Amino acid sequence: MHSYHPIIASHANVVLGSYDQNPECVEVAKALKAHVFSPPQRLWKFLTTSSETWTATQAFLDTSIRGRSLFCLATPPLATLPGGSYWAELQYLMRKEVTPDQFQLIRFPLRIERQSSSKFLSLFGWDNRRLARKQYQRLTQEIDQNLRFLFKDYQGEIVLNRSIPFPPAFDYAFVTIATHVLRLRIAQGRGELSVCVAPLHAPDDWQELSMVLMAMNTPEGIGQRPRYAFWHDVVQLLQTLMNVANEAMSEKRWIVITERLNRLYALPFKEQWETLSKI
Fold first, then answer.
1. Is 69:102 a contact under the CB 8 Å cutoff?
2. Residue 223: what are its φ and ψ, rounded to 5°?
3. How many domains are contained in the chain?
4. Which residue of 22, 57, 252, 271 has the fewest CB atoms within a 10 Å radius of its CB?
């Protein structure tokens, strides 16, 4: 997706990213022999019930800071959703005066070997798969309630998730919807809702919804990026996209959109973070 400096595999590395946009974060960390914060669903539910989710996240970050880790970013800072978990993690690291040279954007694609989660399940003795299925069913119900227009007006149908580890980490659920002109991947977890889109001719070229809309309307640089946090926000943005989807998702137009985004994502970390802080 993006081109960055190569990273030398090391146990001193830590992988961070927006799990909703890059659900392969755990596999990326394994490929880099790096650490990653990815609690299984049952443990995350316990932390949520105990109101200790940020305490656990902060402890992981503090340990990484003390170890002078290289923070390998699976998601470019500019692609993060303001106010989200990944945003909060980056903000915390900057407040702790982690220097820009301790951040490195990951080069994709990586050669990733998917591993069974059975060892992890056995380690904790919990059936995370059962809990993950419940999260998935809950998300499909919310989609049916809120995004019915996709199925009625655009021949939408729920299809098999591609390249999504199962069970996902934290309390995430992913649902992929295929319409007559594009694919949508809706993620819900850590109290957040996010949407990625991909054209039918490049079904694995996922891009975050608000960044796509921004790139469509901004020939160069950073423009006004629409915000969303709730279903009614998502409905409005998707209706905007679907009205122009035939043109926006064409092969020629999609190349232009992704090239704009890749130029932004290729900026040095410091420049991305300073730009993000001003938006």
1. yes
2. -110, -165
3. 2
4. 252
Question: Are residues 132 and 243 both part of a single domain?
Answer: yes
**DSSP letter, residue 180:** S
Domain boundary among the residues 124, 157, 188 is at 124
Chain length of the chain: 279
In a shared domain, residues 109 and 132? no
- Rounded distance between C-alpha atoms, residue 93 and residue 71, angstroms: 10
Q: What is the Cα–Cα distance from 172 to 35, expressed in whole angstroms? A: 20
Q: Which SS3 state, helix, strand or coil, does residue 49 take?
A: helix
Residues 102 and 40 occupy one common structural domain? yes
What's the pLDDT tens digit per position in 163-201?
A: 888 889 899 999 999 999 999 999 999 999 999 999 999
The residue segments making up the domain with residue 114 are 13-124
CA–CA–CA angle 83, 88, 93 (5° rounding): 150
Strands 207-208 and 192-199: antiparallel
Q: Provide the whole-model pTM.
A: 0.87
CB atoms within 10 A of CB 256: 14
Q: Compute the distance between CA of residue 264 and CA of residue 77 in angstroms, rounded to an integer.
A: 10
Alpha helices in 73-164 (DSSP H): 85-95, 118-124, 128-146, 148-153
Same structural domain for residues 135 and 103?
no
Q: Which two tokens stand for residue 126?
A: 């919990």
Q: What does the alpha-carbon distance between residue 85 and residue 61 come to, in Å, rounded to a whole number?
A: 13
**Among the three residues 78, 105, 124, which one is the final residue of a domain in this structure?**
124
Q: Per residue in 202-243, pLDDT tens?
A: 999 999 999 999 999 887 778 888 999 999 999 999 999 999
Q: What is the DSSP string of 214-237?
A: HHHH-SSS--PPP---SHHHHHHH
